[in-house]
Amino acid sequence: xxxxxxxxxxxxxxxxxxxxxxxxxxxxxxxxxxxxxxxxxxxxxxxxxxxxxxxxxxxxxxxxxxxxxxxxxxxxxxxxxxxxxxxxxxxxxxxxxxxxxxxxxxxxxxxxxxxxxxxxxxxxxxxxxxxxxxxxxxxxxxxxxxxxxxxxxxxxxxxxxxxxxxxxxxxxxxxxxxxxxxxxxxxxxxxxxxxxxxxxxxxxxxxxxxxxxxxxxxxxxxxxxxxxxxxxxxxxxxxxxxxxxxxxxxxxxxxxxxxxxxxxxxxxxxxxxxxxxxxxxxxxxxxxxxxxxxxxxxxxxxxxxxxxxxxxxxxxxxxxxxxxxxxxxxxxxxxxxxx
Amino acid sequence: xxxxxxxxxxxxxxxxxxxxxxxxxxxxxxxxxxxxxxxxxxxxxxxxxxxxxxxxxxxxxxxxxxxxxxxxxxxxxxxxxxxxxxxxxxxxxxxxxxxxxxxxxxxxxxxxxxxxxxxxxxxxxxxxxxxxxxxxxxxxxxxxxxxxxxxxxxxxxxxxxxxxxxxxxxxxxxxxxxxxxxxxxxxxxxxxxxxxxxxxxxxxxxxxxxxxxxxxxxxxxxxxxxxxxxxxxxxxxxxxxxxxxxxxxxxxxxxxxxxxxxxxxxxxxxxxxxxxxxxxxxxxxxxxxxxxxxxxxxxxxxxxxxxxxxxxxxxxxxxxxxxxxxxxxxxxxxxxxxx
Amino acid sequence: xxxxxxxxxxxxxxxxxxxxxxxxxxxxxxxxxxxxxxxxxxxxxxxxxxxxxxxxxxxxxxxxxxxxxxxxxxxxxxxxxxxxxxxxxxxxxxxxxxxxxxxxxxxxxxxxxxxxxxxxxxxxxxxxxxxxxxxxxxxxxxxxxxxxxxxxxxxxxxxxxxxxxxxxxxxxxxxxxxxxxxxxxxxxxxxxxxxxxxxxxxxxxxxxxxxxxxxxxxxxxxxxxxxxxxxxxxxxxxxxxxxxxxxxxxxxxxxxxxxxxxxxxxxxxxxxxxxxxxxxxxxxxxxxxxxxxxxxxxxxxxxxxxxxxxxxxxxxxxxxxxxxxxxxxxxxxxxxxxxxxxxxxxxxxxxxxxxxxxxxxxxxxxxxxxxxxxxxxxxxxxxxxxxxxxxxxxxxxxxxxxxxxxxxxxxxxxxxxxxxxxxxxxxxxxxxxxxxxxxxxxxxxxxxxxxxxxxxxxxxxxxxxxxxxxxxxxxxxxxxxxxxxxxxxxxxxxxxxxxxxxxxxxxxxxxxxxxxxxxxxxxxxxxxxxxxxxxxxxxxxxxxxxxxxxxxxxxxxxxxxxxxxxxxxxxxxxxxxxxxxxxxxxxxxxxxxxxxxxxxxxxxxxxxxxxxxxxxxxxxxxxx
Amino acid sequence: xxxxxxxxxxxxxxxxxxxxxxxxxxxxxxxxxxxxxxxxxxxxxxxxxxxxxxxxxxxxxxxxxxxxxxxxxxxxxxxxxxxxxxxxxxxxxxxxxxxxxxxxxxxxxxxxxxxxxxxxxxxxxxxxxxxxxxxxxxxxxxxxxxxxxxxxxxxxxxxxxxxxxxxxxxxxxxxxxxxxxxxxxxxxxxxxxxxxxxxxxxxxxxxxxxxxxxxxxxxxxxxxxxxxxxxxxxxxxxxxxxxxxxxxxxxxxxxxxxxxxxxxxxxxxxxxxxxxxxxxxxxxxxxxxxxxxxxxxxxxxxxxxxxxxxxxxxxxxxxxxxxxxxxxxxxxxxxxxxxxxxxxxxxxxxxxxxxxxxxxxxxxxxxxxxxxxxxxxxxxxxxxxxxxxxxxxxxxxxxxxxxxxxxxxxxxxxxxxxxxxxxxxxxxxxxxxxxxxxxxxxxxxxxxxxxxxxxxxxxxxxxxxxxxxxxxxxxxxxxxxxxxxxxxxxxxxxxxxxxxxxxxxxxxxxxxxxxxxxxxxxxxxxxxxxxxxxxxxxxxxxxxxxxxxxxxxxxxxxxxxxxxxxxxxxxxxxxxxxxxxxxxxxxxxxxxxxxxxxxxxxxxxxxxxxxxxxxxxxxxxxxx
Lengths: 339, 339, 624, 624
Ligand SMILES: Cc1ncc(C[n+]2csc(CCOP(=O)(O)OP(=O)(O)O)c2C)c(N)n1
Ligand SMILES: Cc1ncc(C[n+]2csc(CCOP(=O)(O)OP(=O)(O)O)c2C)c(N)n1
Ligand code: SF4
Ligand code: SF4
Ligand SMILES: [Mg+2]
Ligand SMILES: [Mg+2]
Description:
- With about 350 residues, chain A is an alpha/beta fold.
- Chain A is built from twelve helices and twelve strands.
- Chain A is globular and about 100 Å long.
- Chain C is built from 21 helices and 20 strands.
- The interface between A and B is large, with 52 and 52 residues.
- The complex binds thiamine diphosphate (2 copies), iron/sulfur cluster (SF4) (2 copies) and magnesium ion (2 copies).
């Protein structure tokens, strides 16, 4: 591996001119990932990026690894085939809120359910960028778009809530421009054996500019972000004096301030990333009433699909003879016809 | 409506010979629904049953209402078109675990997310019946089937967990042969404005016989079933002495017995069907460690999609003139060419 | 042939030319499409016949100055009927080096170039791939060059309105438009009206643009321009009198669907999923909510097709729209609509393929898919639009066929006519014949299998009608009762009747006409879809050269008008130009056993007139 | 013509007949398929040539006695080569009234009926739709009837093994088999061996079945049977000596794919989604894990096609399998495989359509879909299997074409050959020529656009190979670099090379042979797929009648062998029988401008020999 250790961002940058709009959040994500790759210690030739169609899905063209820019919504299915065919490969899926949650919802669902070992990154800009700005399944109610000139009426999907509902064993969230946080989350995702799902809030300055400002704004960050750490209390606010409390009988959550009307430190929920109920609760928290959780919401590993498949196969091979076609052809009942 | 009031089971039974295998759980569900229909007070001609493909999906042929036996997995999409075109109609979707959660996962997901007013009944027999017994996305790990002769290795989906993750506002569960319980759940589903999702445990005696016996068995029912009632404590067991308790700090659940080591009545969780976190928690409970929740897990209504669509349209119509084609053709910039 | 040479060749008095091709090219941010459509409007009002060709970049917002971000708008206008955007360019407006380098090859020798030399910075030159500045390295000598610091001129002109530098420079396109309008003696009024109504909320922006427009115009009047560059006159064409508007194919198609719905007295259930270049139809209908149409952006194309089918089952007319890749996904659902015999309109705005292919480019390669892109025997009517304006009538006809014969109908358009715009003599809708749908209401021995003995259409009984409760589905059904039937004879009978129903539609469509030329002759050039214009001009030119060639344009791609075969047999040869590797030509060969020849272009660009002209001539020569 | 009359007509000594058709029919619960396959095995061992036709009910488990629950198995065996399951039935075994009423129409006048009269209860008679009992109302007088209380006989025979009443009666089918084996002098050994190994865990069940089998046999020897009913001899056919087994088309196809993988030295990535009648291929391969194959039941057909494509990208051979409706869903993904030029095998086991259609019945109506069922110009090789046994070689050939030319290949089978079974002279795998795939390893000026100059195949460089990191995708790519390219000329060039690559495959496939008859003549009957047998027999009979007709069977449906056109031109007329409304015939007409005639059957049932015979004769008469 030493060879790879010495790799740098440049080694993971392809010769293709990057073609996103100026100011697109995708640039920041690309840079972060190109920086991260050398530290993962996976040789370039063993790394594969697979995407569907969308601005976000152009990602593979810019990575000096193996890559496949496939068709709209199908990246998880194609990536599953790649991983099943060669579990040695380190397979990443890059998708968007339209690609992954609209047309591709079913494949994402089943890739997560099967828990096949892929890193699935969903760039969520709450809009269809490539096709010039139609609303997406994650767009907020009232989104004005060419296909909803009077505002959208349907309720948005919460990607992390969906992922947990699908049976995902690793679910996390980060922000396009927060390189440090995004890097740590991606390292965790990569380390996780099994399907890992990462939602990345991504700004589309052209068709949906500023929708994440409330949480990206450094000034209000302390109030608007709930930074998750396993085993740490769910506190936030300027001097971490605020926290999330749960009423055990009705399971209602509220924001409390430590020290105020009898609230003590140990009334605050403690993050347990292996706890599914807590993860589901966190995935649904949103502003303005609550801060938005960032980091690893859920991590509860179990045997990845492809491991199970090959393990079973090796088991079976012990009983079934050698892969001999002539023997196969002569298996079962046969008879001879003499001259 | 009086006319309809007098309708009976017979009126809702078509002249088609029912063609399920002897002993199939679908018979019981059909009977229950044919019995229920007259009490819903909806005229036959306003009732539409739409299904995909599968044993369960033959359902519409046996109902003397309007019906459409469509293609595999697409029933929610076709039903959405029906409901959008004519919101007056009372539209039911009948699907199976393969039809609704394998090939049809994406349409089910988005019908639930949009909250379009359909009653969606998923007959879950944890197998592909019609195609002779391959495993399905709800089959338990290790299921031996023609396509998994050595047992399935992938993790099953929990239909109710998936539905809540998809944004469903009404999620319930019942059992094919429990006519009374099933009836009450279906009445609730029908009363709910918006998409309602009902998972029905259904036995397939031919390809997956007895998988639900542990919960269907009357003798052990008290121990294996957690009958949900809004506002009532989550108790079960022979004399309702057992209950579900939640540790507020780590959000772990355990089964406790009232009266034993200091457990009191009010330590037991109280069912609040409007509480999503609780619903998610309930949807994941399963035997042997826990009883299985039956009834309405979640009911938290909001404006159905089609209502929003037509409301917006009527709003818009006030501003945009009359639907006059000649005016439309002459809208925007025009000029005259004289002789 | 350059504008100036045309003076000579066309032998007209004064600076008069019969026709001109102008192309505006610049960054996607430079507003070239807007400039072009304003010039188009002024030209139409002036009374020339015209055709346009917008050429969008594949990128949404390429970095400024990038060659792959160049957006172009071409207009061909003249004193005689014009049906294509023209082959060579006479006047090229290039707002930056990238625009120049990517478009110069189409400029005629001696053609006119107008550039903003302020944009020819080293950075931009490098971006465009120039090693030296073409404005002063002599490489443009074969052309007439007008090089102006447009930026400077504009800032000057809009100073009074106190716009920020950035906003002020946004007026560059209007300044340029003013200059070109001067060059061809166009009126600025419609543009000025347009600007004022568009920016009614921001009058200073409106007036700044107007000022820039006027400044550009007066620059033309006052400045020293290269010899031979003066105001050109393009005589009015003999256009039919009446009320006119511009329309893109997409707009006309949207209007046609709404019109069709009214003629059928049906609400529309329009379900679609965005895809280039089909999305605009979804957008257009979404903003027409005063009409009886529900628009639905589905989760994918399968759901869109299915929702439309559900709409038809419920008693609306289901319409679904996409482009090739999306239509591929609808195949199974379309087969369901064929089996259940429900009305359905499927619009395919074709683009370059295969797979994702060239989304922003045009192609005609989905005819085979329309004919056969589903499992089993599922024939259905197919019609294709010839031009932007034609989309209106074709859409109405699609609705008529779908409802009259309870069948899915595929309507083929393409990226070219969808985005191009042309003047449209607005029709009087009252003159259109209505074709109201009769829903079944009679419960007396009703079955869902009931057919109209004449049209063979299946009965349409919509949910909500008392006494007609019934079930339909995709499994084979009894010809008598409509119940599921696995009976062999019945399957044969149903297969035959489904086929017969579509075949006999030939009795309900007009005979095939000859667009240009005689009904018999040496050669028939048979086209379909958006190649109409290029073929038309090519045939016209060849006939002018005395060749015995006719132009036959097919609207009905399935089934064919009854006289089609006999008409084709009247010609010694048949040539079928298509923007695919040869699809329509195969059907003609198999149906009529005619040795039809092929002319294929699959470059994402429409045919040039001369390409077809050349093919016609070589074919006729070789055969003599 | 009845068995007995055959004695006369066929002029053989003793009770000898040249060929016989036997059909076993009963409830899906009666084990008719098992009975049939045992009789088939015994017949093959006896040395007759044979063909079979299993006819499954659409229902999974219909209520006992229902007509729609009847399951039938037909076998045609004789002393000369037999390639279809036969037209009329000579001997009908009907286990209940429903089986009798649904099958009687196919029985020849004077044919033999064997019924279990214990099952002719009032309840069953009503279920079957009989108003009176056919066994004693005289309606069966035109036939020879053997009516036995089989139940009673069986209970008697198996008493020693102390089975429950229910289990004891399960042996009825073996008793009946025993009787029919007596009738045609078959050996019971293979059946007995089979029973003992199948029920090795439950010896009492095995022995009970054996006892029932023997009892049925001795019943034939001892009982009083109607006149003329005695042991019939069917002379051995002249079958090639060697080792034989029975195989269904699905089995042979599974074996062929595994064999192809070994010959290509590639692992297989088989991804599918269950659908009748294709599921069995998934099942067959799922239980062969000792071979280098991963089987994946995907969430839907789209995912299955995509997973297979992913497998090919990763360096396995992706294979996906479905039937018509599922293939419709794969269209977009197949277009991606065409654009990226990745190897892929798509198996379509065709069934009755359109839409859900007739899932358990057979049809050939997906040829058009195979040819054109995708957007844009995406031609690919298509091959079709002629018989159960042929599936093996066709599968190997599909793998060869896919890997040698880096292209998706469509393999067409159908419900008939997938489920039917026939004796197979087991080939020696060592005699098959291998075609190992050479993956790219050389980083020296590598591009993903690199092609084999001869085959035009695109380079296959699999992830994991150092230095060959590259990106592919569905957008048009540069012919030189493989990078995205929107350049018009490049799109034309890529379109041309994709087409050329497929067209020139004609140089790598064997010439078209004539299956029967001369290479020129009055009529060529051109068939493809599972119609082989019926056409073969029909042509044989016509030639016996002195008609100048030949049988040409096409395996390559695209592209065609180089000599195909010239071969067809050697015949005055061409007739194309197909189980669709006419698909192959259209391609022949368009490609070769031959006025090929059509013979179409779309009833879900295979052609009968006489249907084709009739068509041949009327065609030749009309033309004289
Ligand atoms: C089958 C198919 N349907 C539709 C499209 C058009 N299309 C391309 S990308 C896209 C949506 C992209 O949205 P998202 O996934 O959020 O990506 P973004 O551009 O926002 O990054 C659509 C509708 C397509 N290319 N193929
Ligand atoms: C496009 C398509 N793919 C596959 C099939 C085959 N098919 C029919 S039903 C079915 C699964 C049925 O399972 P489920 O939905 O659980 O219904 P069940 O029979 O168990 O009630 C499948 C795979 C089909 N008819 N169409
Ligand atoms: S459209 Fe939006 S998402 Fe797409 S590249 Fe531009 S800024 Fe980025
Ligand atoms: S296969 Fe199973 S689900 Fe289907 S009808 Fe039979 S018993 Fe019911
Ligand atoms: Mg997006
Ligand atoms: Mg099921």
